[in-house]
Amino acid sequence: MREPIYVDHAATSPLHPVVAQEMLAFMTTTYGNPSSIHSFGRKSRHALDQAREVIAASIGAKESEIIFTSGGTEADNLAIIGMAFANKEKGSHIITSAIEHHAVLHTCNYLEQQGFEVTYLPVGEDGVVKLDDVRQALRNDTILVTIMLGNNEVGAIQPIEEIAVLLEGHQAYLHTDAVQAFGALPVSVNHLKVDALSVSGHKINGPKGTGFLYVKEGTKLVSVTYGGEQERKRRAGTENVPGIIGLMHAVTLSQQEMNEKQSNYSGYKQILIDTFMSNDIDFAVNGDLNKSLPHIINIHFPGINVESFLVNLDLAGIAASSGSACTAGSIDPSHVLCAMYGSESDRGKTSIRFSFGLGNTKEQIQKVAEETVKIVKRLTRR
Questions:
Q1: What keywords are assigned to this protein (predicted)?
Q2: I need a labelling partner for 298 at 20 to 30 A (CA). Which of 125, 200, 306, 322 fits?
């Protein structure tokens, strides 16, 4: 039987076996509510405190600066809406980019309906925001800049440290969606100089429905959920202790394995490119490989129909995608590629994203490359 090959890790990643094993006890025996004062609750609270300590250390933060969430979307929503409403007396202007994940874009759309003004910065063909555009967009009433650290479709790495320097002395807070970048790149809130940073568990071989938001001490933020006083009154609701334990172990493993993965994934990208070139098929890499996340490569194949391409890949036992998984199976043109190359370009409809992760091997990627060549030749045959 043919081995299925999964190269869509940017959409979601498989749960690491170690993570699954560590979570089990907190689903069966250590099940107390961490807000309860009895021994069952205290055991859960101790585990929660340990997880917060480990996760805070992974980004150079204080334990009190970590808020556990249900994932990257909630973290983005809490950061953007929470900071916008907490600081609206200072202004109503927000800056973001045209290539953000929909968790950011749709949140900004919502804030526009609430009377806030949002500037959506363009990007170049490398998928990177220009510092001059940020500088020109800044106003006295700008209260928040939210730019992702690494793009989920093309992997473009944004100049967050440089944007932070630009904001020195300005009232605007800086938030970054680090969902794709965390675990793929070293992430230090002290180096990035951000006020808020979002992470999701299921992108780093942790459980779905888990994540965290870093909020720098002293940052004004209002809660967007109402209920109990969990997470220092910043996020109501009983904490998902088994999920958070899983998240802690996934974070630890991601830090330990980062360098090896970076080297492996660089090699995987080269296997794809070399195979495509040696078979003389028409292709182009979207964005700049030298400014991209190690595990993501997005490739334009002129003349192909992306839906047919994905179906053919699936029939060959290969799981890839045309972009973000959060468009619910949509094959609409990628908003990221449209921002990079223009709405008239066909790249938004003729590009495939391959993303690597746990379980992938050189042999698998070679197979992906060879099957892709066959499909391209078949679909572009005249």
A1: Iron, Iron-sulfur, Metal-binding, Pyridoxal phosphate, Transferase
A2: 200
- Where are the CATH 3.40.640.10 domain residues in the chain? 17-252
CA-to-CA distance for 85 and 116, rounded, in angstroms?
A: 10
> Which residue type is seen at 48?
L
For residue 209, give Cα distances in angstroms to 53, 193, 242, 247, 300: 20, 27, 11, 10, 32
Task: Using a cut of 0.85, tell me whether the model's pTM lies above it.
Answer: yes
Active site residues: 326
- Please tell me the distance from the alpha carbon of residue 83 to that of residue 100, in angstroms, as a whole number: 18
Specify the domain boundaries for CATH 3.90.1150.10 within the chain: 5-13+257-379
Question: Is-contact 231 68, C-beta < 8 A?
Answer: yes
Residue 62 has what DSSP assignment? -
Would you say domain 17-252 falls under CATH 3.40.640.10? Answer: yes
Taking the CB of residue 240, how many other CB atoms lie within 10 A of it? Answer: 19
